[in-house]
Design a protein that fits this description.
- With 542 residues, this protein is of the alpha+beta class.
- Helix content is 42%, strand content 14%.
- The chain contains 13 helices and 15 strands.
- The strands form 3 sheets. Strands 7, 8, 9, 10, 11, 12, 13 and 14 form an 8-stranded mixed β-sheet that branches. A 4-stranded mixed β-sheet has the order 2-3-1-4.
- Helix 4 runs parallel beside helix 7, helix 4 packs antiparallel against helix 9 and helix 6 runs antiparallel to helix 7.
- The longest helix has 42 residues.
- The chain is extended and about 105 Å long.
- 22% of the residues are buried.
């Protein structure tokens, strides 16, 4: 992407990722100059990125476009109709800036200069400058990688300690076996020494055997690392993995594996070799057992060490399994079985405003007609997806109690949400199709919210408004029901006070939504083909 590609009126160009080049174009060099459509607009392919390239953000990307104002491609979160708004808005920072330092430049120098320029930029034309201003940080690692590092550092640290203990236990086990083997070869070693073999030759032979065993173990470990590292990363990251990380063995891993194999072979092979080479020739040739006690003491020490490490690992594994059982047994407040979840974004296919919201309902009706579908709904944020919405919520009821948090959680949901998700309605009713109209905006609150806002009372029939400290009748929702508490964004935390607003009412923006399909009599995966067909017929973008 060149400077000329950023000029107004320049034709749209795109650089595609290496995996897209292989998957969609079979790695053909003739791909340069071909046209693809991004958000239903044509872009000419001008390049293919190298394998593993992820850019500054670290986010797994398939295409890279010129950073210019465009009605077709906008930054995440931008819903403005004006192309230049997200470039001119000084209160919204969404663009990541990166550069490569000159050899003689330090990061401290860049930090100082960048802070000065940043302060000038945000205070230009401002008469009343606040005492506290946003800070700018210069980092050698992109924020995306920093987030991944913070999220994975703890589980990887625990895994490292566990792996080290298992390695120690395995090495002690092998050392005990080598001692036993040396005992079994006791007469052989004594005979070798008796016929003239030097002790150094005997020790060298035993160490060679130990090193060969250690090298075989290191090679097997590298094979398991090569096969298991991607699977381990997916387990650690879960469904929130958005960063492309290369966790395969490289030169550093190979050097570390070789060093550990060499060290363990020497450390845990030298003791049996020294004890075997220090035998009393006369004693053993007369079939005496004077040295058996010494060898037995070493073997008992190794066995005791192995038992100690094993007990630590067993206790850790037991606590880990108990934690998993507790998490698996958590009462989520909704039925998680037989659910198929997927996202659609009608805006990327050209549907906006009320028309796009209407297509949500049409898609839900079409999917509900498919065989094996029990019920269908949609929501702005999927439950337990790690994301949530919060905003100040005011009511026409009693004032907010002292000490109550200023903001409440909320989620915009479609008709049949509580039935599909298996959430129990305690009072009133759930969200229905008639509530999607702005003239009849409805809200359902959970138990925690009802107890906090209407202690000892019934909130059904009252009204609330979202987005302000004072109740605003213009943006009022009627509370039509109270639902049992359910987890929202995290399993480990208690269900927060939550308000479920009817999707589309008082809010006409069309954006990516999550659909939930409850299967009836079939596995959720069996519904994927019919769901994809319904989406394709609706011309939605997955």
């Amino acid at each position: 992407i060149l400077e000329s590609d950023l000029r107004p009126g320049a034709p749209g160009v795109v650089v595609i990722s290496h995996r897209v080049w292989l998957r969609e174009f079979a790695g053909q060099s003739s791909v340069i100059g071909r046209t693809i459509r991004v958000n239903n607009s044509p872009f000419t392919i001008i390049g293919v990125a190298q394998p593993g390239f992820s850019g500054l953000s670290g986010v797994v990307s398939d295409v890279w476009l010129p950073l210019v104002p465009s009605p077709v491609v906008r930054p995440w979160g931008s819903r403005s109709a004006s192309m230049g708004t997200y470039f001119a808005d000084r209160g919204w920072w969404w663009c990541m800036i990166g550069g490569r330092l000159k050899p003689e430049t330090t990061r401290a120098q860049v930090q100082s200069e960048a802070e000065y320029l940043f302060r000038q930029s945000i205070t230009a034309g401002v008469s009343n400058i606040p005492t506290r201003l946003p800070a700018l940080t210069v980092s050698g690692v992109s924020p995306a990688f920093q987030t991944v590092r913070r999220r994975l550092s703890t589980p990887l640290g625990i895994l490292l300690v566990t792996a080290a203990l298992m390695l120690l236990m395995a090495c002690v086990n092998v050392a005990a076996l080598l001692v036993s083997r040396a005992k079994a070869r006791q007469r052989e070693i004594v005979v070798r020494l008796a016929i003239g073999a030097s002790r150094a030759r005997v020790i060298g032979q035993l160490l060679t055997e130990s090193m060969l065993l250690s090298a075989c173990g290191g090679i097997l470990g590298l094979l398991f690392a090569y096969w298991g590292a991607p699977a381990l990363l997916s387990l650690l990251a879960g469904n929130r993995q958005t960063t492309q990380l290369d966790v395969g063995p490289d030169g550093v891993v190979l050097a570390f594996a070789a060093a550990v194999s060499l060290a363990t072979g020497l450390l845990f092979g030298i003791a049996p070799a020294l004890h075997a080479a220090r035998e009393d020739l006369a004693c053993h040739l007369k079939e005496a057992t004077a040295s058996t006690t010494q060898r037995g003491g070493l073997a008992r020490t190794l066995v005791a060490s192995q038992i100690c490490v094993s007990v630590v690992l067993l206790f850790g594994a037991g606590l880990f399994v108990r934690t998993l059982r507790n998490l698996d047994g958590q009462h989520l407040g909704f039925e998680r079985d037989n659910l198929l979840l997927f996202d659609v974004d009608p805006e990327r296919s050209g549907y906006t405003g009320r028309h796009g919201i209407g297509l949500h309902n049409q898609l839900a009706e079409r999917i509900a007609e498919q065989p094996g579908v029990g019920s269908v709904t949609y929501m702005q944020e999927a439950l337990l997806a790690g994301t949530s919405n919060s905003t100040p919520i005011a009511t026409d009821g009693p004032p907010l109690p002292a000490g109550r948090p200023h903001e409440d959680y909320f989620n915009r949901v479609g008709p049949g949400f509580f039935d599909t998700m298996g959430m129990r309605v305690l009072l009133g009713r759930g969200i229905e199709l008639r509530d999607m109209d702005g003239g009849h905006a409805a809200a359902v609150v959970n138990e925690s919210w009802a107890r906090a806002r209407f202690p000892g009372g019934n909130p059904v029939g009252h009204r609330l408004s979202a987005g302000g400290d004072a109740f605003d009748p213009q943006y009022a929702y009627e509370i039509v029901g109270v639902v049992a508490d359910a987890k929202y964004d995290r399993v480990r935390e208690a269900p927060p006070p939550t308000v479920y607003l009817s999707y589309g009412a008082k809010w006409s923006r069309t954006r990516r939504v999550c659909f939930a399909v409850r299967s009836a009599g079939v596995a959720p995966a069996a519904l994927m083909a019919s769901v994809v067909w319904c989406i394709s017929a609706s011309n939605f973008s997955l």
